[in-house]
Amino acid sequence: MFIDIQNLSFTYSNSSMKAINDISFTVEKGEVISILGRSGSGKSTILRIIAGLEMPNGGSFILNGKKIMDTRTFIQPEKRGIGMVFQDYALFPHMNVEENILFGLSKMSRNDKKKRTNEVLELVELEGFEKRYPHQLSGGQQQRVALARAIAPEPDLILLDEPFSNLDTDLQVKIRGDLRRILKKANTTAIFVTHNVNDAHALADRIVKIKDGKIEKIGRPCDLLGLSTSELPSTVEKASEELLTV
């Protein structure tokens, strides 16, 4: 296994209830995993723990054979080899597309930086947009720049927080397919959190469904619906309510 998360627990300082309660799951190299749940279910807390933005009360996290966190170990976020795409994309408004991507490539030579920037621009199909600024891009283009910036340093894992929440409904369907294609072409291991069942089913290889800080189900989208893959697209909308209820 590429990622091994075991027995994660977390309680916020202003609460007596566990936000995360004994969460365990594994991820294979190149898998795209969705953590699916309603607001307040604990899904974003899991993402923050994996990123190193929160310190859990217990549990362990191993990434690509490297112990990232346990009762005696805590590797700082910048040393984990993890990229993150935030909900609002967090692009630097005073930097153009090329500069945003170059920002995370400080350890490379100038020639290698340029080569890698061109590679990820091609990957996300934004060649020719290098000199544009974020305000000159559509929401979907901004998301692809954020993804290119996260992928450019070749991290072991990419985390995405509600990746489609800032997009219009019509655009979401196209961007889902684009995002999955980009992640698979780059053989990037990814975990994304969402409250949207359709996003999870369109993008993920497996879904980790949580409620009240606990895992309810883990499985492929078609397994969770009890359907064959060929049946899934036409019925996922009808199953949305069922999957997000107990």
Explained architecture:
This protein is 34% helix and 23% strand. It has 246 residues and is α/β, with parallel strands linked by helices. A 6-stranded mixed sheet has the order 6-7-8-3-9-10, with helices on both faces. A 4-stranded antiparallel sheet has the order 2-1-4-5, covered by helices on one side. Helix 5 links the parallel strand 7 (157-161) and strand 8 (190-194). The longest helix has 17 residues, at 169-185.
Rg, alpha carbons: 18 Å
Helix share bin: 25-40%
Record field, number of beta strands: 10
Widest beta sheet: strand line-up: 6-7-8-3-9-10
Please outline the major beta sheet: 6 strands, mixed
**In percent, how much strand structure appears in the residues?**
15-25%
SSE pattern: EEEHEEEHHHEHEHEEHH
Shape: globular
The helix/strand class is alpha/beta
Overall mean pLDDT stands at: 88
* Low-confidence parts: 226-246
Distance between the termini: 30 Å
Number of continuous helical runs: 8
